[in-house]
Amino acid sequence: MNTHESSIRVAIADDHALFRKAIAKLVDSFDDCTVITEVSSGKALIEQIEKGTVPDIILLDLNMPVMNGYETAGYLQKKYPDISILMLTMYHTEHSMMKLIDNGVKGFLKKDCHPSEIHTAIQEVMAKGYYYSYDSAGKLASLLRCEDREAVYYKNVLNPVEQRFLQLACSELTYKEIASIMGITPRGVDAIRDNIFHKLNVRSRVGMVMYACRAGIYM
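^ that's the sequence the OP posted. Answer follows.
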């Protein structure tokens, strides 16, 4: 284990013991890195951090018991925003990337990546604040193109009343509560909803919310 004061302090959270220990041994072999903790769950990771073992960067598994990568990243973003997170996963979609980036994740590493990429990713996150592989960058670009296109369409085709309704529909409010907030009748809400369904080519409230998320529309 490296102990130089200027070493990058790394924590590893993965529920597969053999993989976790192999990654820890690899990272510890880097001249500029020191593994300060390795744990099997997000909950155990947070417990270690709250006891004072605070890393500069975390290699975090996406699928873990007790607290998965989404939950752990979200908690750490709120409580420890200065800690950088690199997500370890075998597969991620554009929308899982969006959710993880929203939760403060700075980059993505596939579990079958070349060992040298792990070192590169750690160094780039520490130097630049982010790391995206060719695969991740392509997915992110595709997602941003989709968001830009749908955001522009949303602003052009929905009038201000419909835009307000769509924002409210992204909450846990019932349609009756939305009608009260907007000062219209429940029948008026039905009319606005049906217009939005038609304009956005969706068929349910879930469809509206998914569209709103892709277009960056939130309450």
